């Protein structure tokens, strides 16, 4: 694979040496050695409170407050002072909604998706507090022969926009459906439509949690106000990074921090309490790892190489799951069925029809064989799974196999081998 050396990539992950096949990466990826080293280094050498004048504190402050946002900003194409950290993306988005509360009027309209609740729940709760109206942009089937072949379509978003639209919140990639939403095009279309309809102010919030391990975010090119992802799914520690557009921070957001902290003009006003500083520092290890994947240390090239390699994983798995024998057996992909650069290797399916198999029973076979980790459920995209039609038991959900660039074609072949046994039963 030009530009991507999988053995070199895998050598960065101590956990991969065991040979265990990690197939639940959309739940959490493995951590690169540079991330682990930085956590140990921070705790060993600079684990003091930030902001004091003695030398060790100066260094801890530099690591967590200067180096970390500067490096992480590269993954957003943002400026470092537009980045804040929190424990999770769920918390970060809840903070965004809280900070906007004073600027929401009764009758304002929020458009959300049925994806992961993290970028829907805070808006629904805010709407309930402020008398705003929630509309839902639903994913719809792409193929006539598979009602679960869902994806978000721009044409189905635009009719929801009115002069009252205030917030549009969606995922750049679903943690179940796995397709890459063309964020730039969606945002351009929705902004043009909102302007034509006379909307007062529209802010766009994009959940990039299931996108960031696979593609490079570009908040400037996308023209969005908020974007968020979780480093524990991007080869890093358990911490989340949030982008807030500087102009939006000024124009729309009230501070969430203690009243005596004078942080009004920085994104830190939306960060109540400190994140784990050793974790904030360790994010620089994840960025460094990604940069190291291409000789030019160019993130665009890194993610191009990742996307190209990941296609070699998506293709055989989707080809197998959608082959006539599997279709006949009742296997239905939940998400788009075709491989291509608009598809990441997060692949979900159910087995329905005359001889259905519960998702938990598919996963049980993998667990019994051992040496491999995949999972079933709704993965917090509760509304999406709950509204699948024909209905799927919400507690059983879908089987999800979620791979990343350190997975190999051999691993995919092993997964297919086990699936063949499961479907033959
Ligand atoms: C698409 C998506 N959004 C948001 C989240 C929530 O992230 P966090 O666990 O950091 O709150 C997840 C986690 O699974 C996710 O997959």
Automatic annotation (TrEMBL):
The keyword Transit peptide does not apply. The keyword Cell cycle does not apply. Pfam families: Aminotran_5. GO terms for molecular function: transaminase activity. InterPro entries: Aminotrans_V_dom, PyrdxlP-dep_Trfase, PyrdxlP-dep_Trfase_major, PyrdxlP-dep_Trfase_small. Keywords: Aminotransferase, Transferase. Residues 22-414 form the Aminotransferase class V domain. It comes from the Eukaryota. This is Aminotransferase class-V. It comes from Lyophyllum shimeji (Hon-shimeji).
